[in-house]
Amino acid sequence: xxxxxxxxxxxxxxxxxxxxxxxxxxxxxxxxxxxxxxxxxxxxxxxxxxxxxxxxxxxxxxxxxxxxxxxxxxxxxxxxxxxxxxxxxxxxxxxxxxxxxxxxxxxxxxxxxxxxxxxxxxxxxxxxxxxxxxxxxxxxxxxxxxxxxxxxxxxxxxxxxxxxxxxxxxxxxxxxxxxxxxxxxxxxxxxxxxxxxxxxxxxxxxxxxxxxxxxxxxxxxxxxxxxxxxxxxxxxxxxxxxxxxxxxxxxxxxxxxxxxxxxxxxxxxxxxxxxxxxxxxxxxxxxxxxxxxxxxxxxxxxxxxxxxxxxxxxxxxxxxxxxxxxxxxxxxxxxxxxxxxxxxxxxxxxxxxx
Length: 354
Ligand SMILES: Cc1cc2nc3c(=O)[nH]c(=O)nc-3n(C[C@H](O)[C@H](O)[C@H](O)COP(=O)(O)OP(=O)(O)OC[C@H]3O[C@@H](n4cnc5c(N)ncnc54)[C@H](O)[C@@H]3O)c2cc1C
Fold this sequence. Notes:
With 354 residues, the chain is an alpha/beta fold. It has two domains: 2-130 and 258-346, FAD/NAD(P)-binding domain (3-Layer(bba) Sandwich); 134-255, FAD/NAD(P)-binding domain, CATH 3.50.50.60. The chain contains seven helices and 22 strands. The strands form five sheets. Strands 1, 2, 3, 6, 7, 8, 9 and 21 form an eight-stranded mixed sheet that branches. Strand 7 and strand 8 form a beta hairpin. Helix 4 (170-179) runs parallel beside helix 5. The longest helix has 19 residues, at 307-325. The chain is elongated, with a radius of gyration of 23 Å. Bound molecules: flavin-adenine dinucleotide. Flavin-adenine dinucleotide binds next to helix 1, strand 3, helix 2 and helix 6. The site of flavin-adenine dinucleotide (FAD) has 39 residues, from helix 1, strand 3, helix 2 and helix 6.
């Protein structure tokens, strides 16, 4: 039985995937090949996880056989790849509760009250329900979404504007460099001389400052001025203790993500440094049988937080979960190139080999 039955109370499922980042999306594919249909839940309103939230327009170079694609393109391709398996997405809702039932299945509940009864769970929750670290200046939050931004969704809205970009990591530097020449002015504000960003980006930024193409200020935002309901100046206190006023149209803040596991920490799973420990690298199953952890959320000796590692984990986790869903069926690995059975589930023609 691999179909799902919806009751007025709860959705009965074989597999629930928590997280619609790249690894959660590929988990749909690997489960689909084994004829397991998945429900995918994400607290964000869109799929793609970090790739779409943090770097939709930036190229990724280490996806096997894809020399270069942006975070958004990777997500679009994954969505296309999983089309044959018709997953059901439940977006804009955080999974708040996971509890084992007496019958061995799990009760899953989300922040808006969607309920599931599922045989298996795949936690692909990345860094958790991630939230950007906010700028700590009293009252400035009222400009969030209009003049204060924690991510760049539409670069065009910043063009021709006076920008102040806060932060010393890759996101801050990359966007500062990106907007030079497109924005009216770019000021990078960082609290110290040392940067976490790639040395090449730091060198490029310093060269642009030397050419007066942009400006670097070492200091911290300590206040602001508003005019006609608009954020007009940022007050910046330097290491010398002097507070200067920096006029601006837009404030971009890249202080990183607060690594909040959120409700996941309360589900009885083994946790090590805010990641889920898996019992082995054969199935990527957690200490709770039937719950698997894949992608950035898991930890094991040698773990590398890379998309390609998560894809591999998703494949093995699907095989590891199959006995919970089909206890009497022997599962064999087959090639998508040659298996008529897989062609059927993928909805493609079986090629004729000479
Ligand atoms: C700037 C940057 C550049 C990068 N470049 C590369 C690169 O070039 N190559 C590479 O391999 N990797 C790169 N990475 C890392 C890569 O993005 C991650 O390894 C990848 O996104 C992990 O995928 P994931 O699906 O495990 O988690 P994520 O992408 O983090 O997705 C997890 C999803 O789970 C959701 N979620 C969490 N908790 C809950 C909950 N309780 N309920 C519902 N939903 C929940 C989140 O909202 C999120 O959408 C980069 C990362 C950054 C920040």
